[in-house]
Amino acid sequence: APAAVIAIDGPSGSGKGTLCQKLAKQLAWHLLDSGALYRLTGLAAHRRGIALDNELAVAELAANLDVRFVPGEEGQPTRVLLDGDDVSAVLRTEETGSLASQVAVLAEVRAALLGRQRDFAQAPGLVADGRDMGTVVFPNAPLKIFLTASAEARAERRFKQLKDKGESVTLAALLEDIQARDKRDSERELAPLKPADDAIQLDSTALGIDEVFEQVLALAKKRL
Ligand code: C5P
Question: How do the pLDDT tens digits run along the chain, 224 residues long?
Fold first, then answer.
């Protein structure tokens, strides 16, 4: 029998990542961070000097990514190795996010990553984090959530995160970035960011991530 999947989609900064980590931990289920696969593909292309619009070459890279996720010990975050190099820190930067969204528009790249993503659906279950989990990758998921928040709230969260890491950015520049990325992700032809017809929409602007977590956990217990 296929493993149960909770598909969680939404724009960056909606709190999706934190929500998915908390859910996977609470349920002791697997976690798929699909954005990381697009980030790794963009990063690998960049490092090898492959043009980001060279669809076949980038798709070939995506299909053959040499990546390992090494679980952190004692509450440390998972480390990500690309070709044996620890890329955990560079993976999360704005620059890598931009590389990711450029390779994410390529049909062959999305196709190359499809099977890899579906392989994560293992017993006892999977929490899948992305943009097209409910629409394309796991269309039969019994629980689909579409998590949003205002662009301003998302920019402020991101601003705090980056400031804590000592990166120098301005709130205005972040807001502009977020709006540009939203536009690119939701207007692209392939697997655009949009709620599945049967997704439950939640807004974390006012709710806060802990309340969102409690609501989704209650839904999961009721449905799965
Ligand atoms: O979620 P994250 O910020 O890591 O995603 C980086 C980029 O990868 C997104 O802006 C989007 O362009 C792309 N992406 C995607 N489909 C997914 C996950 C991410 O196109 N399922």
Answer: 568 999 999 998 899 999 999 999 999 999 999 999 999 999 999 999 999 999 999 999 999 999 998 888 887 888 999 999 999 999 998 899 989 989 999 999 999 999 999 999 999 999 999 999 999 999 999 999 999 999 999 999 989 988 888 888 899 999 998 898 888 889 989 989 999 999 999 999 988 889 999 999 999 999 88
What ipTM describes this predicted complex?
A: 0.99
3-class secondary structure, 180? helix
Residue closest to 44 by CA, chosen among 81, 13, 76, 74: 81
Write the DSSP symbol of residue 215.
H
Q: Ligand 1 pocket: which residues have CB below 6 Å?
A: 12, 34-35, 38-39, 97, 100-101, 104, 130-132, 181, 185
The total of other beta-carbon atoms located within 10 Å of residue 141's CB is 23
**Alpha carbon of 43 to ligand 1 centroid (Å):** 13
Q: Among 19, 38, 80, 120, say which to mutate for ligand 1: greatest number of ligand atoms within 8 Å of CB.
A: 38
Maximum CA extent, the chain:
49
